[in-house]
Design a protein that fits this description.
Number of domains: 1
Largest sheet: 2 strands, antiparallel
Radius of gyration: 24 Å
Structural class: mainly alpha
Strand content: under 5%
Order of helices and strands: HHHEEHHHH
Helix content: over 70%
Shape: elongated
Strand order of the largest sheet: 1-2
Distance between the termini: 51 Å
Number of helices: 7
């Protein structure tokens, strides 16, 4: 009797590899990607999403190397996919950390450095304004289809950095430079508000020298807080247009790391 489905060992190995390694790369990316790493998104949801995307990509990606899935070579390739996915996800996280750092700097200038909330994503404490900017970044990221573009970059990575090429073929210099770029961008975005708050503090310092009898602590803190919120409002109005440039730079660095 002729079997309806006949698969040889090499064909079965190639079929398993074409589904397994994209699944590992996508799972690592979703695990490290902002928003998707939130405890509200359960691991089962991330695994199912990664498996569904890998199932759709399996017929379209280049053929993976013919490696025994239970060999040491397969374990090395799997580890490379995990490292690559985590690095791409952390590159996007640095984009979100730019806005969180802006909120932290503004909180310190306004005297709200003690006002912290618990970040459910990382489990650490975050400045109140930092959490506000983080939420705003999330809304901008999805409104600009940043999640779709980042997934498209990861899909293109199977052609730009094929499975089995090795991590030495990647250019991680652009990703490493994003760490310094994160602090520089946060400082540039918050610099106008920092200068404005510095002038306010200098004004109250001069007033305290001119009229020592005035209780400037009672008057100065509410005024500094009020003017600080004005600076936050002005910063938020300009953040939308600047965020698109930050997003473009981050996504470009992710793509150039594979060239």
């Amino acid at each position: 009797m002729t079997p309806l489905l006949s698969l040889s060992a090499p064909e079965l190995t190639s079929w398993i590899g074409s589904l397994w390694w994209p699944f590992v790369r996508l799972s690592a990316f979703l695990w490290a990607m902002p928003v998707f790493d939130n405890p509200a998104v359960t691991p089962r949801t991330r695994i199912l999403l990664a498996f569904f995307l890998a199932f759709l990509l399996a017929p379209q990606i280049p053929s993976p190397p013919a490696v025994d899935p239970f060999s040491m070579d397969a374990a090395v390739i799997t580890a490379e996919q995990i490292v690559f996915g985590v690095i791409m996800g952390l590159a996007l996280r640095l984009l979100f950390e730019v806005m969180a750092q802006v909120g932290l700097i503004l909180s310190m200038q306004m005297g709200l450095s003690m006002a912290v909330v618990m970040d459910p994503g990382s489990g650490n404490q975050m400045a109140l304004l930092g959490n506000l900017f983080w939420l705003m970044t999330t809304l901008l990221f999805f409104s600009l289809n940043g999640h779709l573009v980042s997934l498209q970059i990861l899909v293109d990575s199977f052609d730009l950095w094929k499975i089995g090429e090795g991590l030495y073929a990647l250019n991680f210099g652009n990703i490493i430079q994003l760490f310094g770029w994160m602090f520089a961008s946060a400082l540039l975005l918050s610099l106008p508000a920092v200068i404005a708050m510095l002038l306010v503090n200098m004004t109250f310092g001069i007033a305290s020298r001119a009229a020592p009898s005035l209780n400037l602590f009672v008057l100065g803190f509410p005024m500094a807080l009020l003017l600080g919120f004005v600076c936050v409002f002005l910063t938020l109005t300009q953040t939308g247009s600047l965020f698109s440039d930050l997003l473009f730079h981050t996504l470009t660095s992710m793509r150039e790391a594979m060239k």
